[in-house]
Amino acid sequence: MADNLFVFTVLCLLVAGCEWLVRHTWAKYLGTALLVIVLTAVFANVGLIPAGSKAERPVAIYDGIFQYLAPISIFWLLLGVNLRDILKAGLPIISLFLIGSLGTALGVLAGMHFINGPARFGTDFAALGGMFTGTYTGGSVNFNAVALHYDIFKDGVLYGTSIVVDNIFTTIWMVVSLLIPKFLLRFWPKSTAQKQETTGPDLGIDQDTESIHPMDLGIMLAMGAGALWLSEALTGVFAGWGFTVPSIIIITIIALIVAQLPIMKRLPGAQLLGMFAVYLFLAVIGAFCDVAALQGAGSLGLSMLLLILITFLVHGLLLFGMARLFRLDLQMAVVASQANVGGGTSALALARSMGRSDLVLPAILIGSLGNGLGTFLGFWVASWALPYLF
After folding, report:
1. Which of 57, 165, 220, 337 is 20 to 30 Å from 318 at the Cα level?
2. Rounded to the nearest 5°, which phi and psi values hold at 215?
3. Within a 10 A sphere around the Cβ of 113, how many other Cβ atoms?
4. For residue 75, is pLDDT > 60?
5. Left if phi > 0, otherwise alpha if psi is -120 to 50, otherwise beta: which for 231?
């Protein structure tokens, strides 16, 4: 318990410190989201806090943030969403997300061909390719669904290394996603780039600063916890009826219904609590970037690194190439890519850090779409595409 309290203390101080740096120093050009990830990764890799949570050495505070705080942060942030504001972003971002999913699958095929997957990974190469396809389409649920089906859990070295590499590249891609608009905006058509240009970085100070009464805080905490409890209960009910409905979809629907009530416009605290929870979630992502574990994996880890590097290269070229060709919003493309690689919560954090409140709900929705699509695409790559290729 003491260790978890220490870790939570450090995470909170890191979030507070990054906010101060962003508001008062040149770090405003990096943004709180990027700074939290990078600094927490540094802290984890120099041993100040644990680098990830493993079966043999679980870190309860990390697991709790993933299991409870991340979905509740989605609920809080969606309470400020007006459904009419996001209708314009619907079809384009879904199209970009599906293109990104295709790019991920093609990237895994290209990567396995380039490094000669069967020689590098043995008979489990196809399952491994399906796992990475699943996780970079939907998330860790899809990753583990494919791994469980093919019994990759029984190969501790291969499975453990794949988790380490996955965590590291998820962190790296979040950083890359935050930097892409800064470098590609000049090459984007002015018709779409114009609305993305600002006089300076959007720090979100006004949006994140709220005056909140203890009564408001109690109501907001109860709403968040109650929504998560209800979503998980309904997931169990649907499962009993033979339907699989992820709890993240249910909590999103609950938040959207509640958000349309007029009283929600007068109830403060959702933005404040939501952003702090998201920053804690991003801090844990940074903590899972365990460089030492990757070094210990040797040539197996390097082979996986090369595989995922090629996967991301193909994914990025296809997604951003198509977005450029059809003159679609660059920041929308970045959010769609992040939803593929990091899931709905990290895509939400990215949209929010770029000051694009209109992309917050689409980020969550396509993240949920990825949860459903990722397993199917992963199994297609593992059971048909890669065996056919080789």
Report:
1. 165
2. -65, -45
3. 13
4. yes
5. alpha
Instruction: Give 259-318 as a DSSP string.
Output: HTSGGGGG---HHHHHHHHHHHHHHHHHHT--HHHHHHTTHHHHHHHHHHHHHHHHHHHH
pLDDT in tens, 84-134: 655 555 789 999 999 999 999 999 999 999 999 999 999 999 999 999 999
Could you state, in order of their start, the residue ranges of all structural domains in the chain? 87-183+212-268+289-389
Residue written as tokens 């619907």?
90
Question: Is the pTM here over 0.90, yes or no?
Answer: no
Query: What is the tens place of the pLDDT at every residue in 129-139?
Result: 999 999 999 87
What is the DSSP secondary-structure string of 16-33? HHHHHHHHHSGGGGT-HH
Whole-number Cα distances in Å, 152 to 95, 125, 148, 172, 293: 32, 10, 6, 25, 19
Sequence-ordered list of residues with C-beta below 8 angstroms from that of 217, at least 6 positions apart, any chain: 269
Matching residue, tokens 């916890």: 225
The C-alpha atoms of residue 2 and residue 377 are separated, in whole angstroms, by 42
Which residue matches tokens 């380039």? Answer: 114
* Rounded Cα distance, 43 and 55, in Å: 21
CA distances from residue 226 to 29, 137, 234, 274, 290 in whole angstroms, order as listed: 37, 29, 12, 15, 34
Q: How far apart are CA 69 and CA 284, in angstroms?
A: 11
